[in-house]
Write a structure and sequence with these properties.
The protein has 73 residues and is mostly helical. The chain contains four helices and no strands. α1 packs parallel to α3. It has one domain.
């Protein structure tokens, strides 16, 4: 596999993981979980965090996402 193809696959995996997390955050939990689960090998910590947050009720989920973003920055 060429280096360019490897970079493309890596960026695609990251994009799909982030889209899955965004879907979880916006309440589309099933679709988000599926996308995150499929891309968990790209960033296991981020994926497991997203899956853990998907368990929370929607009312609390928004605050939890804001908190995790503050931890990252």
């Amino acid at each position: 596999m060429s280096k360019l193809e490897s970079v493309r696959k890596s960026r695609l995996a990251e994009t799909q993981l982030m889209l899955g997390i965004l879907l979880i955050e916006t309440g589309q939990t099933q679709e988000g979980r599926q996308m995150v689960w499929e891309q968990k090998s790209f960033s296991p910590l981020r994926a497991w965090t997203g899956l853990a947050l998907s368990i929370l009720p929607i009312e609390i989920r928004d605050q939890a996402f804001k908190f995790t973003r503050r931890l990252r920055s």
